[in-house]
């Protein structure tokens, strides 16, 4: 038995253990927690920080978070939403409107935003599923619901129209810089906060995936009619998927609004925000737990590296980034996380052939 | 990522970008190679070439491990690609030009002729890159920052400067609350923000018209429906009634709209004494087009903070019809010789229009250079102190001495009145900056 | 123009309570009962704008209808059309009208290339993959234009002016675009209905498996369709360049409205695209006239959602292309 | 004429055919029977290039065709009447028929063939300008068959041609099949109407779990106890 096979078999033995997900989770989030330190480590005169700054890390984890939230609905139940900016924006706006106009602590505002977004998600879902929208039609409907909000908010002076909100100071709502205020004076706490967010949504996602709810979700994704025929209440479970996903996406929007200081309809409800929120999940592997996280650690750094490497010609980085997107969906339509199993399948096929030949 | 760097590098922290404006000048000459051929007699090319040999070599190969006082690095954080790039590139070029001119004069005097270098970062007009690019520019050694044109991006960018205690002089960013009520200690804005521009409109334009014997009792607003358009609209609503001008109609145009027919129909049926346009270049062109198509023109066609009627290209695109338009916007000061000089140098070097926005960025860079000159140091806090006490008169913008208040706003910021006369944009009011009399 | 000044719309202050929703409709009804001449003018503008929108949707509906691919690069295809016409007229000094067929040819080739390189390999993959692939194409082409032609806005030197018919102003640039839209629509419709290739395209749109069972080379139909769809975008972009300044980013606003129109009219339906375009144009014009700000766009999205829910196959869905 | 050896195929990760071996000779009617999910339709789809086999070989007149696209297979003379018909439902009957003629030869003859089909299926002639989707199931089945014949196949593959049809229509379909076979066409068919099919067929294959479990003459199969029990419900 070759060394590789030994390792592989050991890994499989480990993988079968009940504690395996816990160990993997701890390892993953341990790594995430250590990243700000790791990027500062000097290896042969090179620091990773030269490529990945803390700000880029934060952005990466934000999109890992939103993609994970998107994944609960679209990856698990197969209802491809192209309008998650709606929920993201609701979270951002609820937080800022409450904190700026009513001095409500942003944590409370965030939860209010989550609930509002969940409600909006239920409306979208109830209408779309009642009328049996599928595929492109469903995607376009969700997009329309998001674009609708962009124009509504732009034209509503009650929500400060196109000017949007500037974040208030902690003292304006009776707090001091720190966790309670949801505001910090440097980036590191913001990083750990969003890693914490990611941990929570990943945990929720894992719980769903490993429960009967997840089973129903997958059944709906694979064959909704068949699922319904064996008694899965698909309408209700799709709604659960939308609501949970919308709720968590809104929390991401709330974080965004606190971290970036200012929001406008054309920043949080932007057309391309819809894409940015879900892209890591599609690149990483929709419907998987690891996909959104791995995807984000590919998408965001690639765009960042392209930007810093090809900065001599303005715009060249977007060409590289575009080519990267095309390449990844062509060569890995099921996401990057499928690479190991594809490699394994290939390996086994090769070995299988050998056995047949013998 | 700085544009002055020729070879790319994986470690921007250690590997300082090309130092010395000589290299910058060479790169510029490269960019504007068309002009270098015929307009190369310009002294900038020569002096850049002279010192370029040695400066360029040491700059790109060794870099400087520590901040040394033989160069001052300005970090320019602007949208160099994406939908805002048309203006952003011009603004960044203006900042480079300001550095080049200073170096031609012998550099920063108080630092024994230290050269001014500009390193550029492209924020792509994206909010999430505003802070990131600021950090990159700082880690590349920038002593002071400027940017960013888009207000949300500027907010993110200034936040970084404030936290790190590095001065940030805003080139352009219109939103009032970037500075107001933010408690910033390191951020400054020479430019009049939206509210100031609108109040200047209300103060100046009606009196120009009335002084000329005209009547202006009613107005119709035509604005772009984004934050900048709405900010001006809100302020005009506040200030115009104080000058006895009633707003009888408001109509908005969407960014990227294909025409302004409906909006003009609406304005036409309200038939106000003046239409006040607040748009980017494209929106104003559409307005002019639709007005002509419907054979309508109010007694006074005016604009507040509109890019269209201070943009020579747009004015010539519109043609005849643009003549007579009164517009208040930040403007270049035509009464000083330096303006024409800078303008012609800019045109020679960059084959781009020296618009009011570009001119404002140029002024921001001069403010920075002047502050460094007065500080005699590249320490951020020294520069910051100098900015606080600054009173800079020798600039090319049509406004008084640039002095900052506690919030960092320029107390003498001004949006004077321009008029299109014979297809060229002329400052007509207040008189101290006027190059022509208003024709009412 | 004093004779038109009979109705002064109420000042539409945003944030004025419920009145802001009701007053415009009251005003609209009053104008109708008074037979305000401005209504006729608005109708004309709605028709013109609708024609332009319909034109921008033709290519999208073709690709969407036949291949079931949401082509995000459609907007930037329009932009390539604009630059083609501009290049032809500025550089070669040819009339911009002649530039339009050239733009169509350029876009046909570009469309085929884009299709073969990016869409064909994943035509059977989940739909979101095609969406992201075309998004990548959008980034690539848009930035390439930006690098080659700078981000500065461009304009075709052509002042067409307007004519006045019975008190109604008709801007000629948009009028020509409407004529081109109608002509193109009829030509493509004739091509689809009267030629063998057209029938094969319709068949493939109708039932891809069916097309394969009868032996249609579906791959070939795919790239031809994508090419023709792109060429239609070229015609649309070229026509828009007749009356509008443009930059590398102009396509994005048209893209979203084109999606709305395609769904309103029904996938793959050319008359549907035309009617959808008219509806969106009319709402923008009348909504823009009576409603504050850009509230009209809210109506358009509500209509869009309503159509998706109640009649997702569109007004002309199910009918022949 | 047609030979399958060791054909494995399926959808995504799921293999449905685990090595199918069968052949059809010139002029034969061959029937493929088996329970639901045995892999009959998958076999038919694989032959016509709608699915491509992961392993194994399909040859037609000595030429390997398993890696060819469906239109290339049609060009070689294999045309299928698919199980779910796959008609162009939004197009007229005439359009559907015309689309059936894709090869050069078929195109050359298509006017004559069209007339012939309208003669053969009078119901279609009555509805020739109607949209296919608006017709009854029986009419649609006729149209599918006629559309396939418009392609002038040498080998006609029929996948459940009588499914969901009223008894008198079933008989009509079988009459047509017999008729065209009599004119020399080779036929491979899948049918749930086992008895009638096996009577018509020269040979039959029984398929179970993605493999051929037995093969014999049609009459022999009709007498085989296992087959009778499993598929004839006696």
From TrEMBL, chain A:
The keyword Protein biosynthesis does not apply. Keywords: Cell membrane, Membrane, Transmembrane, Transmembrane helix. The keyword Cell membrane applies. It is a multi-pass membrane protein. InterPro entries: ABC_transp_permease, LivM-like. It comes from the Archaea. GO terms for molecular function: branched-chain amino acid transmembrane transporter activity. It is found in: Cell membrane. GO terms for cellular component: plasma membrane. The chain crosses the membrane at residues 21-39, 45-65, 77-95, 107-129, 190-218, 239-257, 277-299, 319-337. Pfam families: BPD_transp_2 (PF02653). This is Branched-chain amino acid ABC transporter permease. It comes from Haloferax gibbonsii (strain ATCC 33959 / DSM 4427 / JCM 8863 / NBRC 102184 / NCIMB 2188 / Ma 2.38). The lineage of its organism: Archaea, Methanobacteriati, Methanobacteriota, Stenosarchaea group, Halobacteria.
Automatic annotation (TrEMBL), chain B:
Pfam families: Peripla_BP_6. Keywords: Plasmid, Signal. Residues 32-66 are annotated as: Disordered. SUPFAM superfamilies: Periplasmic binding protein-like I. Residues 37-58 have a biased composition (Gly residues). Residues 72-408 form the Leucine-binding protein domain. NCBIfam families: TAT_signal_seq. This is ABC transporter substrate-binding protein.
TrEMBL record, chain C:
One of its GO terms (biological process) is amino acid transport. The keyword Membrane applies. The keyword Signal does not apply. One of its GO terms (molecular function) is transmembrane transporter activity. It comes from the Archaea. One of its GO terms (cellular component) is plasma membrane. The chain crosses the membrane at residues 38-62, 69-88, 94-119, 131-149, 169-192, 221-243, 255-282, 289-310. It is a multi-pass membrane protein. It is found in: Cell membrane. Keywords: Amino-acid transport, Cell membrane, Membrane, Transmembrane, Transmembrane helix, Transport. Belongs to the binding-protein-dependent transport system permease family. LivHM subfamily. This is Branched-chain amino acid ABC transporter permease.
From TrEMBL, chain D:
Residues 2-234 form the ABC transporter domain. Keywords: Amino-acid transport, ATP-binding, Nucleotide-binding, Transport. Coiled coil: none annotated. The keyword Glycosyltransferase does not apply. GO terms for biological process: L-amino acid transport. The keyword Nucleotide-binding applies. Belongs to the ABC transporter superfamily. This is Branched-chain amino acid ABC transporter ATP-binding protein.
